[in-house]
Write a structure and sequence with these properties.
The structure holds two protein chains of two kinds. By secondary structure, chain A is α/β, with parallel strands linked by helices. Chain A has helices spanning about 1-25, 40-55, 65-75, 90-100, 110-115, 155-160, 170-185, 195-205, 210-220, 230-240, 255-265, 275-285, 315-330, 330-340, 355-370, 385-395, 400-415; strands at about 25-30, 55-65, 85-90, 130, 135-140, 145, 150-155, 190, 270-275, 290, 300-305, 305-310. The radius of gyration of chain B is 24 Å and the shape is globular. Classes of the chains: A alpha/beta, B mainly alpha.
Chain lengths: ~425, ~290
């Protein structure tokens, strides 16, 4: 008798606590953008509004690290610990992989129901779509990006003015500016020859000789590598080293050190991605700086940013979609540009921060002409490391431009034939 | 191990007679040691000087210059963003429990292998050594699935179990070779007095072995503290994570913040450094005494 009363009491307790849980709705959200980056600042503000809009929901935010999601993203998404919505790295090896493993919810219906189709164009969706084998460009929509990124030349306006130079609009003018700085005793280009910016410079130069067919074939692994654009890029880079436009010891340095040459006012030009904007905005106080695109006919190195994805196990997909809509709203797109970020759909007239205004306008220009050329390492798994190694070899002179493109072609064609 | 004990007397002789042979050689040794000391201290200095630099200062003057003013922004930012106090507690709990259980398992194993003379003890030791040598990357997936199956995924207990076992493999190897040369006379005497195996372990072996156990435990603590991959994979929630995992906050996808990194490394290594300074005596004494026995 006593035992059964006890059992009933426990049963009642379990029941009430279970009901209490049901009423107490929780929404778990993760991202890994740095808290002081344009995205981090904007998303934090948006989350405040989101919480205010849903007083009945407990919102749990966790600041994740890129390393953690890179190492164990698919393991987390395949467990009960997955959040309701999270930022996930774009690309075949990351978002594509978990999409193909069936760990995400498709956002196809939400795309029209939430009106995202009126904000984003098809070109900005290339990295949202993944096929059933996880290759981007086609298939259902698995994630939505709310910002963009592109590679451009950061330049020291004070040094340009002092040397009486203007912003180049062609490759010849760029070379002429290099020559003028060199003649004045300044090594013009800061280059992380042993890091990512090396291959970004290479790809930017290759895109000066690339047309639609080449870029689509290259990124889509559709044909054996046509090496002409890369050969031109490699010859140009070797030429730059020979003429002293690039410091001899920059062949072995990393991006943070190359960026340091720019921020400390030693080098007037540094070619890298818009992810530097936040750091440069807050840490450069001694001179004025700006951005210009490496002059190409159409394509620039760049893409939409990381994706917001909704895991399969998300208990609140409706709230997750509402969150994405909030970030795509004009209010937070403008906010993001005002924080120096690259917005996809900001109202240019209301943006007051010149850095974000310019970056968002440039991104819109590239995206509108369908000129997002993506990154050179994307088509082939492991190509990132191959490119870093070969570009370093090229700059150090252990590889001639011909050998360089030959080795790239071997790797690329191998992957192309075996896909 | 046994070789190391043979000539402690020689060292004393040298120390006693040394002062007579004063000469240039001593200065050379001193110079080399000073140089080595500076080399060791240099990274600590870099971490300290860069963590108290402002980002503007770093961007203008680079990593090697002295800070123009003392700025605690980076240290404070890392402490807040990482919720570092919580991470310290997590790391301390995990490392301490691993150290205690790791030593306990090692001791029991080593008692069986070293003194108990289990059949095939060599084979067991080799198998255990393989356990140490396998790269963690290759066992992460099986561990993940086991943790999920047992409901231990995203709990500190999973990390504690994994490291207590992994590290006791090394501890077993080390302690069994120490116990292999344990003087039989002592054990025979204890048996004569009517002690059973359990009593011999706790009342005879452990007291003699205590310094070695302290050393092993200290190493387990430091190693566990510095572990990265398995805590990264196993501990999903921020509230469960350890110090070394929190360090990842300073490295973004494309960007890293050097002053924040310096602050993180300073805060990250401070606890192990303090721990080492406190237990330094135990460590050195333990190594010597352990060897003598």
């Amino acid at each position: 008798m006593k035992l059964s009363t006890l059992a009933m009491a426990i049963g009642a307790m379990v029941l009430t606590s279970g009901m209490a849980h049901a009423q107490d709705k929780t929404f778990n959200i993760w991202w890994f953008e740095d808290a002081v980056s344009a995205q981090g600042i904007t998303w934090t503000k948006a989350l405040e509004e989101f919480k205010a809009n849903h007083p009945d929901v407990t919102v749990n935010f966790e600041q994740k690290t890129f390393a953690q999601l890179q190492a164990s993203g698919s393991m987390i998404l395949n467990s009960d610990q997955a959040p309701d919505v999270l930022e996930y790295n774009k690309g075949n090896a990351t978002a594509g992989l978990v999409a193909s493993q069936g760990l995400l919810q498709s956002l196809d219906d939400a795309y029209t129901a939430q009106g995202w189709d009126k904000i984003l164009n098809e070109g900005q969706l290339a990295l949202s779509r993944y096929s059933d084998v996880g290759v981007y460009g086609s298939g259902p929509i698995w994630g939505i990006s709310t910002y963009g990124e592109y590679v451009s030349a950061f330049y020291n306006i004070d040094m340009f003015e002092k040397a009486g130079l203007k912003v180049p609009t062609t490759l010849e003018e760029l070379t002429a500016d290099f020559e003028a700085f060199k003649a004045a005793g300044v090594t013009p280009l800061a280059l992380g020859g042993a890091d990512t910016s090396g291959q970004h410079v290479l790809a930017s130069l290759a895109y000066t000789k690339a047309d639609d067919t080449w870029v689509q074939n290259y990124q889509g692994l559709k044909a054996p590598l046509d090496t002409a654009p890369y050969l031109f890029a490699a010859q140009t880079m070797v030429d730059w080293v020979a003429k002293g436009y690039v410091s001899k010891d920059s062949t072995g340095i990393k991006d943070p050190d190359a960026a340091l040459q720019f921020t400390s006012g030693k080098a007037p030009i540094y070619i890298s991605g818009t992810w530097n904007l936040g750091n440069f905005s807050s840490s450069i106080k001694d001179f004025k700086w700006g951005q210009f695109l490496v002059p190409t006919p159409k394509y620039s190195v760049g893409s939409t940013g990381n994706l917001w994805v909704v895991p399969k196990g998300s208990k609140n997909p409706d709230l997750a979609q509402e969150w994405i809509s909030l970030l795509l709203s004009p209010k937070y797109q403008t906010e993001q540009a005002n924080n120096g970020g690259v917005s996809i759909a900001a109202d240019a007239a209301t943006v007051t921060n010149p850095v974000g205004q310019n970056a968002s306008a440039v991104f819109k220009e590239i995206a509108d002409k369908q000129g997002l050329g993506f990154y050179p390492d994307w088509p082939v798994p492991g190509f990132y490391d191959v490119l870093i190694q070969k570009v370093a070899g090229l700059l150090q002179g252990t590889l001639t431009p011909d050998q360089f493109v030959g080795e790239l072609k071997t790797t690329y064609d191998d992957a192309q034939a075996n896909q | 191990m046994a070789d190391a004990i043979l000539n402690p007397g020689d060292a004393i002789d040298e120390a006693a007679y040394g002062p007579r042979k004063r000469g240039a050689g001593r200065w050379v040794v001193l110079a080399i040691l000073t140089l080595l000391l500076l080399l060791v201290l240099f990274p600590f200095f870099l971490a300290l000087s860069n963590s108290i630099k402002s980002t503007v200062d770093y961007a203008a003057n680079g990593p090697l210059s002295l800070p123009t003013s003392v700025d605690f922004t980076a240290l404070k930012k890392f402490w807040d963003v990482a919720d570092f106090g919580r991470k310290l507690l997590n790391s301390a709990i995990i490392s301490l429990v691993v150290a205690v259980f790791g030593v306990l398992i090692s001791l029991l194993n080593a008692y069986a292998i070293g003194i108990g003379k289990v059949r095939g003890s060599r084979v067991i030791l080799v198998v255990l050594l393989i356990g140490i040598m396998v790269p963690q990357e290759s066992i992460v997936y099986p561990l993940y699935y086991m943790a999920k199956a047992t409901g231990l995924y995203d709990t500190q207990l999973s990390v504690i179990i994994i490291f207590a076992v992994l590290q006791s493999a090394f501890g077993t190897y080390l302690l069994s070779s120490v116990l292999g040369s344990f003087p039989k006379e002592i054990i025979e005497a204890a048996e004569m007095d009517g002690a059973n195996r359990w009593q011999i372990l706790w009342q005879v072996v452990v007291p003699v072995l205590r310094p070695s156990l302290m050393v092993v435990g200290t190493f387990f603590f430091i190693w566990t503290w510095n572990e990265f991959l398995i805590p990264l994979v196993m501990l999903v929630s921020n509230n469960n994570q350890t110090v070394s995992v929190a360090m990842g906050l300073t490295r973004g996808q494309n960007m890293s913040d050097p002053t924040l990194q310096a602050a993180a490394s300073l805060l990250g290594m401070a606890p192990t450094l303090i721990f080492f300074l406190i237990f330094q005596r135990t460590l050195t004494r333990g190594v010597v005494v352990g060897a003598v026995k």
